Amino acid sequence: MKVQSASAGFGALIMGFASLACFAPAIAGEATPSAAAAAPAITVELNKLETVDKGCRVYTVVDNPGSVGFQTLKLDLILFHTDGVIGRRLMLDLAPLKSAKKTVKMFDLEGTACDKIGSFLVHDVMECKADTGPVEKCLDAITLKSLSNVQITK
Questions:
Q1: Closest of 10, 26, 19, 58 to residue 42, by C-alpha
Q2: Rounded to the nearest 5°, which phi and psi values hold at 140?
Q3: Alpha helices (H) along 14-142
Q4: Which of 39, 99, 105, 110 could form an SS bridge with 19, CB 3.0 to 4.6 Å?
Q5: Angle, CA of 117, 1 and 105, to the nearest 5°
Q6: Over its length of 154 residues, how does the chain's per-residue pLDDT go in tens digits?
Q7: Looking at the domain that runs over 2-153, which CATH code has it been given?
């Protein structure tokens, strides 16, 4: 998974984040409202944070129970420090996501201590493409939860 820092113009790649989500089968390359409503959502769980030499490693569990896989899923993610101040903005490429599969994904936040992370905000989905083509309204399909003391919201 790829993570890019927005402050570096999305130029610097770091080892990637956990899986976040999107849904909806596409018909002839485009999602329809009725198809989108029938598709299962992807669940992204912020599972744990682990201190590593250069910062913090974030583990996520992504569950895609549906029959549609995803080739591209790029999220605009904002990290907030414990004092509520924005720490950084990241572009996370979570793909590929296989259909009917639970996956563990992780990413390292160099220069950021785990105990300084207050929360994550999934600001938007920048690009979402299923095996069947582009998908609209991926952000609506994301279900988020956290098993750590750090919350993840949209």
A1: 19
A2: -65, -25
A3: 33-38, 138-141
A4: 105
A5: 60
A6: 555 554 433 333 333 333 333 333 333 344 444 344 334 588 999 999 999 999 999 999 999 999 999 998 888 999 999 999 999 999 988 889 999 999 999 999 999 999 999 999 999 999 999 998 898 889 998 899 999 999 999 9
A7: 2.60.40
Name the residue ranges covered by the structural domains of the chain: 2-153
- Residue type for position 80: F
Backbone torsion region of residue 97, taken as left when φ is above 0, otherwise alpha when ψ lies between -120 and 50, otherwise beta: beta
At 42, the amino acid letter reads I
CA separation for the pair 49, 108 (Å, rounded): 10
Q: Which residue is associated with the tokens 């976040």?
A: 20
Q: What does the alpha-carbon distance between residue 69 and residue 61 come to, in Å, rounded to a whole number?
A: 16
**Measuring CA to CA, how many Å separate 56 from each of 51, 117, 143?**
5, 9, 24
